[in-house]
Amino acid sequence: MKRRYENRIELLQGTLDLIILQTLQWGPRHGYGIGQAIRNGSSDVLQVDTGSLYPALHRLERKKWIKAEWTVSENKQQVKTYQLTATGKKQLAHERSNWDKLSEAMAGILHPAREGEQ
């Protein structure tokens, strides 16, 4: 079973919010569905356990970036469904911009241009 997790990457603090907001950009989901979308979208590299996911969802809800409502699932279960708010969509754009800057900065450090190529 250990082999299944050997390629997992620990999330940098702050990236979970971005990932959740992006996942909800694709449409409303319940908590389990958010976790599955993250795992599937990352080819099983990123997995968010419930001990991290639900506190993050509650934090985003307090910030008014997402809203939640109780709905009935396909198998007739009551589930809390989360969706992006207008404020959350603006925050997602801001977070994505920051992520792009961070990615470019990291690429510059990890793969510096050779002196002759500048």
Q: Can you characterise this structure?
A:
The protein is an alpha+beta fold and 118 residues long. It has a single domain, classed as Orthogonal Bundle (Arc Repressor Mutant, subunit A). The chain contains five helices and three strands. A three-stranded antiparallel β-sheet has the order 1-3-2. A hairpin with a 5-residue loop joins strand 2 and strand 3. The model has no long low-confidence stretch (mean pLDDT 88).
Quick summary:
The protein has 118 residues and is an alpha+beta fold.
Q: Tell me the number of helical segments per DSSP (H or I, 4 or more residues long).
A: 5
CATH second-level architecture: Orthogonal Bundle
User: What's the CATH topology label?
Assistant: Arc Repressor Mutant, subunit A
**Residue runs with pLDDT of under 50 for 5 or more positions:** none
Question: Quick one: CATH superfamily?
Answer: Winged helix-like DNA-binding domain superfamily/Winged helix DNA-binding domain
Helix-residue proportion: 40-55%
The largest sheet, given as strand count, sense and whether it forms a barrel, is: 3 strands, antiparallel
The gross shape turns out to be elongated
Whole-number total of structural domains: 1
